[in-house]
Amino acid sequence: MAVSLLSHELSDLCLGKPALRSLSITSTIAEALEVLKTSDDNFVSIWNCDDDECCSRCVGKVCIVDVICYLCKDENLVSPSIALKQPVSVLLPKIPGLIIHVEPSCSLLEAIDLILEGAQNLVVPIKTKLFNNKRSKQQQKPFCWLTQEDIIRFLLSSIGLFSPISSFSIDTLNIISPNTLTIEYHSPASAAIGAISRALVEQTSVAVVDSERTLIGEISPFTLACCDETVAAALKTLSSMDLMAYIDCGGPPEELVKVVSAKLKEKNMNGMLQHFTVSMSCGGFSSSSSSDEEYSSSSMAVQVSPFPRPGRISRSMSYSARMVRRSEAIVCHPKSSLVAVMIQAIAHRVNYVWVIEEDCSLVGIVTFSDMLKVVRESFETMA
């Protein structure tokens, strides 16, 4: 059975995967934003298109978090309408190897090695009978992409093959990384903008802690990706703790909306103030569920909850009507087993799990990449 697992090709993992939503690298940020808001996908792939279809390549991916961080620049907050007219290429990280094209015949082992070398997404052609040699130039060959989550999910179906390693604790396996992105809860959220951008690239999150490194919550790129671009205004004007309350529970509390509006006016960021006001008037918060009492309890609660977070609903619904990811962190303990942490991350649709002690002090983080390293090493004994 081990030989059977090792013989799998990426085409086996691509079954049922949807075709990528794609945009040309010459598209504007506003066009990318429109695609993201009307899609159930967190990311849209960006392509360097050519008249010769064979030369078209995926050169990156963009999500709303990229737009939010870009709008956080002071000059863009002053005039977001001008900023959104810029080409989407300005959002792409200048890091080579994040997106790699591979053939469907690529082996599982080769795919894992590429991910461990830094690839975030593997772009794979989809085999389909609908595309033949007579297709027009307007009909592009379909692609899907595979992520770390796809690989981990696939490996879980054969987790018994990795015994006894799968039952070892994560501290025994030495895969807890102490190098975490953190910010203190009373610090301005704007101080975390660089960390958020880095977390997006590393597929992790920013831990919100107190002065004793007690884990209070997180500012997650996945949570922000469920919001809209006007969160940039909150990110520039609120504390980290208040930002967690702002992006939590499906919509910002009215009290925090007033704070953001007042600070935008104070800083003469009239362009974002107008954009922000229009967004709020279209359902930016729910007056029925975002009372001052709820704001107080949400922003002051110092706790970590491992409970499931609400699923993502299409952005075509109003901000106040849809459920979004909460700012509560997904946690485990140093003695948690590898398989338990893998299952926990998959269940919550995150690429990492925070590691804490019994007193909720932050120890570190375990990522899918860390887990794949252990699995990859175990392959050597299975071959």
In words, what does this structure look like?
There is one protein chain. The chain has a domain at 1-77 and 87-129 and 139-161: CBS-domain (Roll). The protein contains 17 helices and 12 strands. The protein has helices at residues 2-6, 10-13, 29-37, 64-71, 74-78, 80-83, 108-116, 148-156, 193-202, 221-225, 231-237, 240-247, 254-266, 270-281, 292-300, 338-348, 368-382, and strands at 22-24, 44-48, 57-62, 99-101, 121-125, 143-146, 181-184, 206-209, 215-219, 331-332, 352-356, 362-367. The strands form 4 sheets. The chain has a 3-stranded mixed sheet. The chain has a 3-stranded mixed sheet with strand order 4-5-6. Strand 8 and strand 9 form a beta hairpin. Mean pLDDT is 83; it is low at 130-139 and 285-325.
CATH homologous superfamily descriptor of the domain at 1-77 and 87-129 and 139-161? CBS-domain
Number of helices: 17
What is the number of beta strands?
A: 12
Tell me the name of the CATH class of the domain at 1-77 and 87-129 and 139-161: Alpha Beta
**Low confidence ranges:** 130-139, 285-325
Strand order in the largest sheet: 1-2-3
The CATH architecture of the domain at 1-77 and 87-129 and 139-161: Roll
Structural class: alpha/beta
Strand content: 5-15%
Largest sheet: 3 strands, mixed
